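A brief tutorial aside. Many learners find it easier to grasp structure tokens once they have seen a single protein encoded end to end. The record that follows does exactly this for Interleukin-1 receptor-associated kinase 4. Read the sequence first, then the structure, and try to relate runs of similar tokens to stretches of the chain.
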Amino acid sequence: MTKAMAALSLRLLSFLCCLFLIFISEASDWVCDYSKVGNYTVNSPYHKNLHTLLSSFSSRTEINYGFYNFSYGRDPDKVYAVGLCRGDQKQDECLNCLNHTRGVLAEHCPNQKEAIGWGAECMLRYSNRSIIGIVENEPFQVPFYTLNVTGRVNPFNAVLQSLMRNLTSIAASGDSRRKYATGSAPAPEFQKIYGYTQCTPDLTSEDCTNCLKEAMALILDCCSGRSGGIVLKPNCRIRFDPKIFYGPTVKLLPYAPAPAPPSPSTTNASSSQGKSHTSRTVITIAVPVACFVLVFPLLCIYLSGRKPRKKDEFKREEDSDDEITFIESLQFNFDTLRVATNEFAESNKLGHGGFGVVYRGKLSNGQMIAMKRLSRGSGQGHVEFKNEVVLVTKLQHRNLVRLLGFCFEGQERLLVYEYLPNRSLDNFIFYPTKHAHLDWKTRYKIIGGIAGGLLYLHRDSRQRIIHCDLKLSNVLLDAQMNPKISDFGLAKLFEIELTHASKIAGTLGYMAPEYARHGKLSMKLDVFSFGVILLEIVSGQKNGGFRNGENVEHLLSFAWKNWRKGTADSIIDPVLNNALRGEIVRCIHIGLLCVQEKADDRPTMAEVVLMLDSHSFSLPVPLQPAYFMINGCSSVIQFSEFGSVETGSNEQKIDFADASTNEVSISGLYPR
């Protein structure tokens, strides 16, 4: 009897443990108004925008990778939302989870402008402030199991940390659609650990890694010795468990130039039985179809040659219309912008770019903006304007200037950007009264931020983007001196195999030689420009030429000669007082690697970021850099069909108003 009772008690205990595990896996956590932004009233503009935005998730049928990051409306009633599903969730499962979490938030966070909810398989958050591409460590939740590990804790923790390090590395290497990894590892005492890591794909690899590392630290602090635990954060989450809790990862299609609705040819079969049934159906249909083809060969040739092209053209137009329809929520009224700039007053003029004038403005709610008013004779038509809006809207990164909206009324075309009060970086580096305030810590942060922004454009954005005109005046600084890259918008669309530009626009001294001479396009073009910028930041000197005693030096040749002679200290800006000399000299080394003559010798931006982040990463010896030996300042240069050279005005085209400017340059956009 006692044995029977003991067996029954053991079964009951096992059942309760399993029930507890199930409860944890199915529970939802939520936090309301964590930034204290306040409430909205029912049927207010914010409430309607929130409903419209969250309801639009189900209509975005082209998103089959479980990540939704959109905004809707206009300030102060603009809503930002992020939805993220676990990588094993199919599209319908993902949407069901997000809808359920939406209901949980509506119940527990009624009328709150900001809320976040974590379900077992998804996360949903929304706010009246921008949350897209921004790393936030709070709020967070750390649910854990009461069931302890079997045996010694330290060996178990060692296996857990090793597993999570591997999964972190895999997740962080994902693209802008998914950063997710699952795996398992055997633990002592015949135990097994199952785990997964996931970040919102709008994070950079570095930010994803840091987020997951911090999450793992929370696990070790709170849950050491537990058999399972979860860390839920706004931008990442981890989980480990003694039981497998995830399914096979949903496969993604190869990267396409733009999301497209799924077609029957790309729809995954739900099961092997479904695949088998489809195969039998195809065989059944194939015979009469083959006979039809034999009977009507000319008709088939005509249909295969003519119809697909028309269908593809129609599909491209339809996709383009869908994109511009979605971003119409960002559209400003022209009168609103006219009032914001005081009738485009000269006192609000920040600068003049190749396609128009940039103004400072102030909206009725007090928000400052920078507005680009494109000139009517700029040559930029409706298609080009729409391309810039669609492209820039999709780019969300903390080191890129953010597009707030646009206006397209009659002949007027305007782009509205965030206002950055500290102007562009060249106004600090090249001005004696200001550059002394840039200590090495600030300069190093700026260098890392520029590198991170470029890496996002090259690798982590939805399209591969070549800036083509990166320079200090196109790096803007926010109030905390964080760098933001501008002028990456007006993109030229190329086919994948196209590697040359028929028209070149850029700035002498920053252009890679293969681009300036032959119009050859590659990511290494921006790497060269980054190398020039890095050397300018370290030295405080212009690349176009500076006086060194009685001689006029060119920065690249000056840096190379001193590097070869072992006198790198001569390159360093004297105001830095050789602080952290080893780190500064390492940056000079990286800069020289980036400006090497041959593109193949230059590192990728991913390698540059690794070189900056890890001082243990050994650097190769740089080869001789490319040179642009010119007298005076560098100039804007434009090659027209490579037949003649047109030189524009001096590179420094803006007035030194106390704000930043967003000029226009040509960027290269490559489909993945």
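Self-check: The chain is about 35% helix and 20% strand. If you spotted this yourself, you are ready for the next section.
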